[in-house]
Specification:
Blueprint lengths: L6 H16 L2 E6 L5 H13 L2 E5 L2 H11 L12 E6 L3 H14 L4 E7 L2 E4 H9 L3 H43 L7 H13 L7 H8 L7 H31 L3 H9 L1
Antiparallel strand pairs: 1-3, 1-4, 2-3, 4-5
Amino acid sequence: MPDEPRPEKVAVVAEVRERFNESAAAILTEYRGLRVQEMATLRRALTAAGGEYKVYKNTLVRRAARETGLADLEPLLEGPTAIAFVRDDVAAVAKVLRDFAKTSPALVVKGGLVGRSIFDANAAGRLADLPSREALLSQFAGVLAAPMQRFASLLKAIPQSFAYGLSALIDARLAAGESLPVVAEDSLAAGEADATPSAPPDDETSGSADTSPADATPAVAAVADAAAEVTATAGAATSADDAGDSAAAPTAAESSASEEE
């Protein structure tokens, strides 16, 4: 009967399996020859880039890889291995490892996985050459914004183009001797005349109605004629009243004759 694995090892295998399942990627490195201080510096740089640098025994990682369906990862589990688990930006973590290896050749990038796809050391170098996640998002936003900017420019140009076209049409008709319609001006003048309150029928209004300009529009002329007619009627009524008052009042001769009688 085989010995049961110790609980500590079972816990480590479960932890590695969980990290494989939850990480966007994992990059395997060999750290033989790195000093403790260099390892601490590398860990801080990877954490800042969105990674987590962990060291496990290869036997336990192999078991976790098999249980996760990543048996193709086993050839990379030779020698002292540390794994950089990536949460989001794979390119940023790959850049940190590449740049650190340039100054510390003891660090060797062996390969890794993105999702369920295994890649080698050459592919890890190509990942490091990719733009960062922020740069890619910025480029993607620029691609989305470009059509909207062109559409906004088109909308802005439509009224200008319409105005230019209308001006050219008017100039062409005037050059051909064609007169332009003035219906809108007549309607506006008529509306203004209707909205003006009627003035009291006095001499000043009558004089104004008599001196209406000859080139007034038909609507204005009609209003002026109506005002003149009303003024004339009122004047006639006033004259009749004055005549009646004069007839009813006794003359001076008649008053003297009455006194003598």
